[in-house]
Amino acid sequence: MPIDLIRSRLAFQRLGRELTRLAKSPAPESVHKFRTNSRRVEALLSEVAPKLNRNDRKLLKLLSRLRKKAGRVRDLDVEIASLRSLKIPEGNGHKSQFVAALVQDRTRHEQKLAKAFDRKTADEVRRRLKRAASDVDIPKNVEPLALTLDKLAKLGRDHLTLTEKTLHQYRIIGKRARYIAELADHDAEAKRVVDQLKHMQDVIGDWHDWLKLTQKAEALFGGIRDSALVAMLRNVTQAKFRQSVDAVAETRAALSGKKSGPAHAASPQSRKPVAASAEPSAAVA
Questions:
Q1: What value does the mean pLDDT take over residues 94-107?
Q2: Residues in Cβ contact with 156 at an 8 Å cutoff, skipping those fewer than 6 apart
Q3: Are the C-beta atoms of 263 and 245 separated by less than 8 Å?
Q4: Highest mean pLDDT range out of 2-6, 164-168, 242-246?
Q5: Which of 263, 241, 244, 264 lies closest to 253 in space, CA to CA?
Q6: Angle 188-221/164-181 helices, nearest 10 degrees?
Q7: CB 13: neighbour CB atoms within 10 A?
Q8: Which of 193, 274, 280, 283 shows the smallest number of beta carbons within 10 Å?
Q9: Global pTM?
Q10: In this predicted structure, which of 5-19, 99-113, 260-274 has the lowest mean pLDDT?
Q11: What pLDDT digit, counting tens, does each position of 38-86 carry?
């Protein structure tokens, strides 16, 4: 099924709207939508359009820089929500200290994001977005679903051992592949692939958020012998890792037409499960 041209144009329009909202206030939802829509435009220009012109290259460079700054704020929003969801006795006060540190860090990165989104930069991005939308020329024979499956095939064969590094690769490439598949024109198979990739992306992203949170806690408070909070975070992260491995196995099977089988996982030595007394709520994605 060919590219839905209306949907491809909407990607530029939505990004323009989110840019305006984010420039006014770096609220969590605005930050998230800006990042998501900028990746959609990036996937369209980088993976679908036959070649990039000078304006496209400058636009992608600008978006990449702004998205990184927005990403730091977004990561902290998720980490704060995840940490607050943990049901753990206050004990030595590590949870309160950690929340306060993350909130302070979020304020600092929010200020940097606001500075990056000055009026001059925002105007330039809007101008380049408008030009890119009018200049983009997608060949009629481009098949977004075929592009998506080809991109996923490059991740490796079914027996590939899953580590933190390879899981992160699945997250990044799966995300870009999903945005390409979304461009298909009312295709039922493309929608099935999109739904499967979104599920995998959400599960791996959840694990990755908890992993980063755990690493920050370890840097502040030490290991499991030093902090009950670190012990619980390690436990949660290991559980999320196993869920991610299962999600990848399910996605491989769904996209290959095979029955889902156990995936090989190599858990990091530092992520051995530790007994925890409370079950955390799910993080905000």
A1: 95
A2: 166
A3: yes
A4: 242-246
A5: 263
A6: 140
A7: 13
A8: 274
A9: 0.81
A10: 260-274
A11: 998 988 888 887 788 999 999 999 999 999 999 999 999 999 999 999 9
Mind giving me the DSSP string for the chain? --B-HHHHHHHHHHHHHHHHHHHH---HHHHHHHHHHHHHHHHIIIIISS---HHHHHHHHHHHHHHHHHHHHHHHHHHHHHHHH-----TTTHHHHHHHHHHHHHHHHHHHHHHHT-HHHHHHHHHHHHHHHHH----TT--HHHHHHHHHHTT--TTPPB-HHHHHHHHHHHHHHHHHHTTBSS-HHHHHHHHHHHHHHHHHHHHHHHHHHHHHHHHHH-STTT-HHHHHHHHHHHHHHHHHHHHHHHHHHHHHTPPP-PPPB---GGG-----SSPPPPPP-
For residue 114, is pLDDT > 90? no
Work out the angle between the directed axes of helices 119-135 and 5-24 (0-180°, nearest 10).
180
